[in-house]
Every structure is written in C-alpha cells, then in structure tokens.
Amino acid sequence: MGLASLSPADAAPLKVGFSLDTKESTLQTAWETFLKSEGEKQGKAAGSEFKWTLNVANADPARQAANIDDLITAGVDVIIARAFDSGAIGAPIKAAKDAGIPFVTFDRGSTSGKPTAHVGGDSYV
C-alpha cells in the first residue's frame, strides 16, 4: 500500500518530545497542559493522534542535552524545547537534525544553532 492510499486513521501516532527547561512555575505547567490538550484536540479534529513524551531539565543545560538525546534515541518524530540556555541548545539542535528529527524552539530561541522553527517571542536574553 502506497502513502497516497493511507488515511489519517491508518497513520501511527506522531511522537512529540517536549523538553522543558524547568517546571517551577504555574506557567510551565500551563504550557504543558495547553500543548497536550490542544494537540490532542486538534489532532483528533484532523484525524490524527499525538503521543507526548515530556522531560524536564531542572535548570541544567547538560541535563537538557541528555534529555533531548534520550528523545532522539526513543525515536520521536519532532522535538519541541524551551531552552534553559539559549547558547547551549545548539548542540542538541544539531544532534536532532543529524538524526533527521525536526527541532522547534519554544518561547526561548537559540543563539548557537538554527532550529527547524521557532515559536514565540524570545523572552529571555
């Protein structure tokens, strides 16, 4: 069966890796809740399904890099990350791209590597 004959119902769930820098405030918890609930709702409306894997770096750029490496190893289809350190996120961006995985920075951009896309303003300089 070719790709053209697949319906959305035939497709495997899109595996999304979400790497948070910290989860110390209600804002970070609200982002997680919003992304998961809206992703689920919009996916169902489009006939698709999302499987989320969340990890938290606890304000440690080395931990975030290791967490993102775990997402790559797990075979996620896309990575979304709110970088703890905009200068240190470049290596994880490169690793994801080298593995063929699109990388989206969320809320906080990168000064050390170009992600596939950026969502939001850069609120941390």
Which ranges are low-confidence, i.e. pLDDT below 50, for 5 or more consecutive residues? 1-6
Strand content: 15-25%
Structural class: alpha/beta
Largest sheet: 5 strands, parallel
The CATH topology assignment is: Rossmann fold
The percent range for helix content is 25-40%
Strand/helix succession: EHEHEHEE
Query: According to CATH, what is the class?
Result: Alpha Beta
Number of domains: 1
Radius of gyration, in Å, reads 15 Å
Give the spatial strand order of the biggest sheet: 2-1-3-4-5
What attributes characterize this protein structure?
125 residues; Rossmann fold; five-stranded parallel sheet; 20% strand; disordered N terminus
